[in-house]
Design goal:
The chain is mainly alpha-helical. The chain contains 27 helices and two strands. It has helices at about 15-20, 30-40, 45-60, 60-70, 75-90, 90-95, 105-115, 120-135, 135-150, 155-180, 185-200, 205-235, 240-270, 275-295, 300-310, 315-355, 355-365, 375-390, 395-410, 415-430, 435-460, 465-475, 480-500, 505-520, 565-580, 590-605, 615-640; strands at about 560-565, 610. The longest helix is centred in the middle third of the chain and has 39 residues, at about 315-355. It starts with 16 loop residues before the first helix and ends with a helix.
Length: about 650
Amino acid sequence: MNRERMPNKAFSLENNPFRVLKANYRSSAAEISDLVEDAELDGLHHEDELQKARQALVTPKSRLLFELSWLPELSQLQKSRLEELLRQADPAVILTQIDHFPDLARANIAAHLCSKGNASIAVVHSLAQSWDELDEAHLLKFLNEERRSSGFPAVEANQLRDGLRDIRQRHATAAANWIWSLPLPGKGMNDVVEQELERNPEASFLRHLVEMYDKESEPHLAVIKESVLTATAAAKKVSADLPQRIKEIEKLLEAWDSINQPVQVYSQFRGQEEGRSKQLYEIVRKLCLELANDHGRYEEALRLSSALLTTFPELESVAESLKEDITALESLSHQKKISDKLDPLVEACERAKKNASSFGHALRSDGFSESGGRILSDVVKSFNDARKSLPEPGVAYLVVRDLALSLNNESNDPQSAFLLVDGLIDLGIGKGPKEVLEKLREERAILHKNWKMKELERQSGNLNGMLKVVDDMLVFANPADRRDLEKLKSKIEGKRFAKKAKFALFAGIGAVVLYFVLMDEFSKPASRTTYSPPVSERSTAAAAPSVSDPYQEDMPPVGTGRSLTRNQVRYCIFQGVRLDYIRPMTTNNSQIDRFNDLVGDFNARCGNFRYTSGVLESVEGEVASRAAALRADAQRIVASW
């Protein structure tokens, strides 16, 4: 914002009639006429100019204004020295030499320097301070003493106040015009405002100066506002050039602030908010809201909100809202960056869910590697890309974990779910997030048990086959299951030894007996077991029916390996069905949290238990006739959340 420093005519000592005619405060009307004749002979001024000067000094009302805008209380010697100082044009020297001058004379000299374009910030401060120190009563006494000598009528106090008000306005205009001649007028004005507010915040001259500066700002701010409107209208189209539009608006806000900040600072001090800045804020914030809420462009909205806060911290009513906007947008922007990097993985996992059979076949054939079919390869590749690019790679593991959940719970394929989680763990060794990997190891054990229990049941009566399955199960078993499996292994080995010592006639009986031993030591419902991270709070199950109810359910205690009654087994089977119904009903985070609580509670009570032979099959046979009632239970549970 470079401007050539040119003189302005807001205020000038050179054109004052007292200087033109070489008159003084005691010059009478007759003496003024003689001075006009002398000036005509000098030939320095045109005759019309001299007559106007004479008329101004012989008319009491206009004479007062020129008395006030001249050099009251200075001697002729001081005036002569001042003429020399003004020719030297060094504002620092001038300020030093006039420091002891009377207040109004000092103020007039400072305003003259501003009008001549030969000022400094120190000159403006001197001008403001002179007005603060001006003694009206003393000035009135001086003027009336001089007028008695000149023969002009005395000045009234109210006339003096009116005259000073006019002179102060002209001084403020001269100072504002000089500030606007600076390369960075906003910075210069801001320096003045901040220093003057610290020196004397109640000074009247500062208020006039800010008003005149603000008036000079209007055309510049109008151009900036129009450019902002054009840029925001283009940005709302959210086209390919949106980043360039955002950058353009940021620069326009900087330009606005470089001009308008001193007015904002002064308004804030007075407990007000600068109106035009508030309007501009509302225009840009509306764009922020549209970008974020309608288009998901959180990064761009964040940049603009940050620019608004930098530009308008003085707008106290909006500063806090902007801080909240920025906090929310930072979070949304961070989440979107993660989401963008996760999208290929999420999409690949969704395709795998829709093609669970072929995906499971590829897992069983090739393991969790890119060498499998296209669906499996896409999952592995997008997982590797995501975990390498995400700041929190654990999120990528959790997305694939969700796919494993679906394979186990929806597709009833615990083997594929196990292979998937096992592959995740292998890839994460030494570089994956420790907490996530630890949780995956726990769930891998559950999935492995789900898978191998079915094989164990299929091998019933085949001691060698059962022993092999038990050995497989020991590889991933948790400590509690490991103890039961070791006992079971010992019994199987004992039975196998006993079988070799007996006639073939008893083989079938031994197999039957062994099956009951197996179920007694290490048993669980034949239906699949869902899994989810454990929760600390116990969820509320459906209300228990009356004692006479043939389908009575009793909630089993928390624990593993317990022998459950028929009613407790019924609770486990029925609650599992309810959870299957509830799962697709959960539509928000709160409901999902409640559902996970129920799953955690279910796993804690029904994850591993024993039961009497025939009970499980009998209870499972009841599910079909109770399907409607169990679905209604599920709907009531969700409705209560």
